[in-house]
Amino acid sequence: xxxxxSNYKFLLIWQLTRQRLLETSEAFNEDNVDEWLSxxxxxxxxxxxxxxxxxxxxxxxxNVDVRQLLDLENQIIQRDGSMPSGGSDDAAALxxxxxxxxxxxxxxxxxxxxxxxxxxxxxxxxxxxxVLITVSNDSPILESDVKRIHEIRRKFRRYREEGRQExxxxxxxxxxxxxxxxxxxxxxxxxxxxxxxxxTSLFIISASRTMVLLALPxxxxxxx
Length: 224
Hints:
This protein is an alpha+beta fold. The chain folds into 2 domains: 2-117, no CATH class; 121-217, no CATH class. The protein contains 11 helices and 4 strands. The longest helix has 23 residues, at 2-24.
C-alpha cells in the first residue's frame, strides 16, 4: 500500500507541475513538457525536485487527493474484484461506475501511470535459509520523506525500549500530514514480535526509484 500511495502522490505532483508549466511558461508545450519533467523528477537530484515542489502552494491537498484515489480504487475492487489500469477496455468493462464523474480522476491517474510506466513491482526470492521480499515502485521518493520515515522508525524504537509502544501509535493516529513512516513503524513492531531486528530485516533504498527489502529467516528465531 505504501508503494501505491507513493506512486499516486508522485503522479498527482506530476500533473500539478505539468499544468503550472504549461500555464506560466512559453518555453513548454504539450510536446516537450513531459520530457523535461522526466529529466527533473528522475534525475536523482533532490534539490531540483524540491525546487518544483516548493511551487506547489497546497501540498496538503495532494495527500487528500491520494486518500480519495485510494477510496475510489477500493470501491472498484470491492465491486469488481480487480483494479483497472486506465485503458479504454477497462472503462467499457465498468459502465455502471464510469458514469460517475468522481471516478474520472482515478482513471486519469491510471492512464498517466501507464504512459509514464509508473508501476509497483513485487519479487519473492527463497534460499535455503531466508526469504527475500522486494517491493519496488517506479516513482522517486523525496529525501525529506526518507528522513521522516527514518525519524519515525527511530522514535518508535525509542518508545518501545521505554515500554511506551501503545502510546506511540495513539500519538500517531492523525495521518492527515501524509503518515510517512507509520506503516514502517507497524512493520518494525511485527518484526520485534517475531524476535527479529528491524535494522537488519527491513531496508529502504531510494534513488530515482524506490525499493523496500524485507529479509526473513526460514526458521523461527529463538527469543534468547
